[in-house]
Amino acid sequence: MPRDQIQTVSELTQSIRGVLEVSFPFVTVAGEISNLRCPYSGHLYFTLKDETAQIKAVLFKPQQRYLACTPTDGMEVVCRGRISLYEARGEYQLIVDVLATKGAGALQLAFDLLKRKLAEEGLFAAERKRTLPLLPEKIALITSPSGAAVHDFLTMAQKRCGAIPIEIFPVRVQGAGAMDDIIEAITLCNQRGENDVIVLCRGGGSLEDLWTFNEEKLARAIGDSRIPIVSAIGHEVDFTIADLVADFRAPTPTAAAEAVLPSRIQLSAHLHQLRIRLAKTVMDRLAFFRRTIEDQKKILGDPTTLLDQFRLTTDHALTSLQFAFSSTIHRRQLALARVSQILARHNPQQRLAYQHQWVHELHRRLILAMVRQLERKRAAFGKNAGLLHAISPLAVLGRGYSIVQRKNGEVIRSGAEVHLGETINITLARGGIDCEVTKILPE
Fold first, then answer.
1. How far apart are CA 355 and CA 40, in angstroms?
2. CATH of 4-121 among 2.30.40.10, 3.90.79.10, 3.40.50.720, 2.40.50.140
3. Which residues pair with 48 in a beta bridge?
4. Is the pTM of this model over 0.90?
């Protein structure tokens, strides 16, 4: 295998993780919870299984605030999330974003997903919700004109404060086109700017009946409205995305009228009480100030004596201040002198000079060590050269010996190895000669 194809375990698991997360960005899985664990971190770890297979799953602590029920072992659930790989163990697992009981169905799961998404964007945050006006000049009621909800709202509005005008915007509140009608009415109210508050009103129903008020486009239209919006959708047990985004959620249309419109009788009684309290407060304050003035006249007496006392107090405070200032300056000067001495001992120039001398000494030692090492190597080289020369064939030739070879370079060691007339080569210490064999002597 070529070197550039070898991967570490970490590189391989990262590659597998990338393939899993790209191939399965979001999945919806139904199964049974088993081996549920909740360690100190607060995250939920469990196994999602069916009759023939299982998969590890984790639900992190921040996502648990959207749970409609507490998960338990053996519970049939529907999970939506993404597939990932836990590299430390080499195990693939399901990172759960939304968990609902299996009977909740697709609408409930979609509701939970949208609720989580808008919550993360801050559309449900309390700080963005506006306070309803105490006494609105005009109210916009967006509802179906034929439903019982509009009748309940108008009946209570007449009892509370019938003088405040209510403008009804007739819309469809269920089925195809209902969402567009409501968004168009909200947009029209904001463009005209004639209403101080908007009320979304509808009677109760099933999750499917109320689904128009769980649409993301409507939720964003409510969030973008410049006019405060009150949601009065369904009965008290019904809850929609529009309720969460609206500035105020009323459990019923009747409660919405009570929240938006003040009670005429209560307002009159409250104003009367305020009038009495205001008059009493003014009279009490006037009496208090009169008593205070009289008391101060008795306390002050002759103002000139007070001026002399204040003058003495000022002189004493000035003397104390000058003494404290001088003492502080002296202490700071002593501290500065001590710090200057410390800085002088740690002067960077002195430390640099010392380091420079140390480097110079190390350089001298290095040069000396190199020279000694070079001398030792030269002596060893000369010794080895002498030994090599002593056993060198050239040294033997220099003592008068020679080497006899055939033309092909084969060394001749005996006269029996040549024959008459053969040309041989004799290698001497300096040069060599070619000879012809004319006589062969016996050994």
1. 54
2. 2.40.50.140
3. 33, 55
4. no
